[in-house]
Amino acid sequence: MQIGCPKEIKNHEYRVGLTPASVRELTSRGHRVLVQTQAGAAIGLSDEQYVAAGAQIAPDAATVFAQSDMIVKVKEPQPQECAMLREGQILYTYLHLAPDPEQTAALVKSGAICIAYETITGPGGGLPLLAPMSEVAGRMSIQAGAAHLEKSKGGMGVLLGGVPGVAPAHVTVIGAGVVGTHALQMAVGLGARVTVLDKSVDRLRQLDLVFGNRITTLYSNAQSVEESVLAADLVIGGVLIPGAAAPKLVTRDMVSRMKKGAVVVDVAIDQGGCFETSHATTHAEPTYLVDGVVHYCVANMPGAVARTSTFALNNATIGHAVALADKGWRQALKDNAHLKAGLNVAQGQVTYEAVARDLGYDYVAADALLA
């Protein structure tokens, strides 16, 4: 199979879909890999390293899209990339379609086979291709939040961990999944006072066993969310419903009553965000104010630590990329129900139920296309 890796073009996105090591995995199995020139240059991966791994270098994205049977990316295709997709071509990347009707419509129109990292499941449950970026984003959320609590960045001027004689900041983490767990690890490590909320009492029990009295665990309901948000200096939103739009757990009214200079970091922004006042921002302009509250809603947070993120992502994605290349998409999906869960759009049909429901499309099960 001919596999293409274009350079990412989203604002301040420096990650790359394939590392030289991933290229070597594919070329060693007889596949051809075409990498756009300078695709990994921003994170120290040179064209020469790709060539040494067996890749060919393409002068531009148009060449990569035109000559490849499968496109491997990191972020969702931008409009000009969607226009280059063709019927039957495999697209293997993050998509986050539920809050993005324009992208969904473009992918449906293309007729391409669109497999989303974020909905591929794992044998032990969970979302293993989303997990490494959620780990990065969870840890980064505390870094970003702590920085924007500084007065010069619009915050209230509070040091996250405090100092002897002065209380630390209060951090509220909504959601105790991968994002929330890594956020609270960082917050506890920096000496903050941390409250974490989740619907799963079993998950809260696990965290309580690990962190003991260093954190407060609360069952998540409207009352506990409101009280915790209003008491917080920094709120991390880490709620996820796989493939679907994130629930708006923090209302505009709650935000209006938060402390002035408090910070919210909405890690769920890729799926539309869990704050009613959230809208996606970029690393170029990461924040905005609503009622005196700083909102950090960067949709590709891990892109800021692009080298770490690229290697972590490739560790998770390369296995399925090899299967798709070796077997073709139909057989690979037939053989692996977890990979099949990643099929979101194919041959002009929406094949992920939550996306179809949220965006008003007829849902066609993947099995119907594989029959």
Give an overview of the whole structure.
The protein has 371 residues and is an alpha/beta fold. The chain folds into two domains: 2-119 and 306-370, 3-Layer(aba) Sandwich (Rossmann fold), CATH 3.40.50; 136-299, NAD(P)-binding Rossmann-like Domain (Rossmann fold). It is 37% helix and 16% strand. The protein has 15 helices and 15 strands. The strands form two sheets. It has an eight-stranded mixed sheet with strand order 3-2-1-4-5-6-14-15, sandwiched between helices. Strands 9-8-7-10-11-13-12 form a seven-stranded mixed sheet, sandwiched between helices. Helix 8 (201-211) links the parallel strand 8 (193-198) and strand 9. Helix 6 (131-148) packs across helix 7 (178-189) and helix 11 (306-327) packs across helix 12 (329-335). The chain starts with a strand and ends with a helix. The model has no long low-confidence stretch (mean pLDDT 97).
Write the layout of secondary structure elements.
Elements: E1 2-5, H1 20-27, E2 32-36, H2 47-52, E3 56-58, H3 61-67, E4 70-72, H4 79-82, E5 90-93, H5 101-110, E6 113-116, H6 131-148, E7 170-174, H7 178-189, E8 193-198, H8 201-211, E9 215-219, H9 222-231, E10 234-237, H10 252-256, E11 263-266, E12 287-290, E13 293-296, H11 306-327, H12 329-335, H13 337-340, E14 343-346, E15 349-350, H14 353-359, H15 366-370
Parallel strand pairs: 1-2, 1-4, 2-3, 4-5, 5-6, 7-8, 7-10, 8-9, 10-11, 11-13
Antiparallel strand pairs: 6-14, 12-13, 14-15
Helix pairs in contact: 6-7, 11-12
